[in-house]
Design a protein that fits this description.
356 residues; alpha/beta; TIM Barrel; 8-stranded parallel barrel; two-stranded antiparallel ribbon; 11 helices
């Protein structure tokens, strides 16, 4: 019997704590959204989902600005699901504090913490915390360098340009067992992919538009770079938006108005043209980046993507604009009880034999 190379693939969820509405369409307070996020994670844990990622933003349309606090609340009510950020905006944070917050989360969750590090596609945190956007790239590079040192070697001796040097400095609390698992989240530039390989960190691809399989050259580049640098093989993950309902029609009709409003809100800031329904439907189709549809539709698309990119983990960004908490809870239920089992079956039966 041929071994299944996809047997260990993990399936997770991501949310930014999008500002949502209640069942009657009334906007909820950020406080209520945060409480709902905790309840959503508790359900994910009960249903056996592998990971929950909480994103960091500093703007009106997302409620989460302190992911680690939300994750600690989730840790207190769960027992097995892994807990992480999606992403931590390292460029406008302090690497020592990032490590301390996640090592603390790791302790209170009994070893379930991980961090996904990124530069962030939104820039509100830069003026908020007094950083110059002109230093966007160099801030991330330097802070990643320091955090990598903290993760892999203690005490730390390090010198950079944006903060005082460290000499033989221990950082507390230490990780109780092993090291803090850290991913680098990238949008798909070759430089970012090679950077992840350079630091020997797993790669998390943020794929929010177009065919996920167009990222295969980046996956190949990452594995080639690891090999050339003499580093061990590491997993590649994918974060993509999606929503699961009983039928394709129900999923699309439920998501469309919320997704359209979210796109319009962000688009006004970035100069995007209005999103057309045909574009949305195309992204929901077999070759798009939106995993929106019935359990079978999403599972078939997911299996194709996992096999095509050789993923070690897939995280569904299940909160899409102002979709209600009730919608999100049902999506999580269907993802856990129908999508993931069918995806695993498809990978084992249809895709694994092709690699034999």
């Amino acid at each position: 019997m041929t071994d299944n190379p996809f047997a260990d693939v993990e399936f997770g969820l991501d949310t930014f704590g999008d500002a949502t509405v209640d069942a009657a369409g009334t906007p909820l307070s950020h406080a209520q959204v945060l409480r709902n996020v905790v309840d959503e994670a508790v359900l994910a844990d009960e249903l056996g989902i592998d990971f929950i990622g909480i994103g960091e933003h500093h703007r009106k349309d997302f409620a989460v600005s302190a992911p680690e606090v939300v994750l600690a609340a989730i840790a207190a009510r769960t027992s097995r699901i892994r807990l992480g950020s999606a992403v931590t905006v390292l460029s406008s944070d302090d690497p020592i504090r990032v490590y301390q917050r996640f090592s603390t989360l790791d302790a209170v969750s009994n070893g379930r913490a991980e961090v996904i590090l990124g530069r962030g596609s939104f820039t509100e945190s830069f003026p908020l915390f007094g950083f110059n956007l002109a230093d966007y790239e160099s801030l991330f590079e330097e802070k990643l360098d320091l955090l990598s040192e903290i993760i892999t070697e203690q005490p730390v001796t390090w010198e950079g340009s944006f903060r005082p040097a460290l000499k033989n400095q221990a950082i507390f609390p230490p990780i109780e067992h092993g090291t803090l698992k850290a991913w680098i989240g990238v949008g798909g530039s070759p430089q970012s992919v090679v950077r992840a390989a350079h630091y020997g960190l797993p790669l998390m691809l943020a794929i929010i538009g177009g065919s996920p399989l167009r990222f295969k050259p980046y996956v190949d580049l990452y594995h080639e770079a690891l090999e050339k640098m003499g580093k061990p093989a590491l997993p590649v993950g994918e974060h993509s938006p999606g929503f699961v309902a009983a039928t394709d029609e129900e999923a699309r009709e439920t998501v469309w108005p919320h997704y359209q409003r979210m796109h319009a809100s962000i688009g006004r800031e970035r100069g995007w043209p209005p999103l057309q329904r045909g574009q949305f439907d195309m992204e929901c189709g077999p070759d798009g980046a939106l995993f929106v549809g019935s359990p079978e539709t999403v599972a078939r698309k997911l299996a194709k993507t996992v096999a095509g990119l050789g993923l070690g983990r897939f995280d569904l960004k299940y909160s899409l604009g102002s979709l209600s908490h009730e919608n999100l809870m049902e999506c999580i239920r269907l993802y856990a009880t129908e999508v993931i089992p069918l995806t695993r079956e498809l990978l084992a039966v249809e895709y694994a034999p092709a690699l034999a």
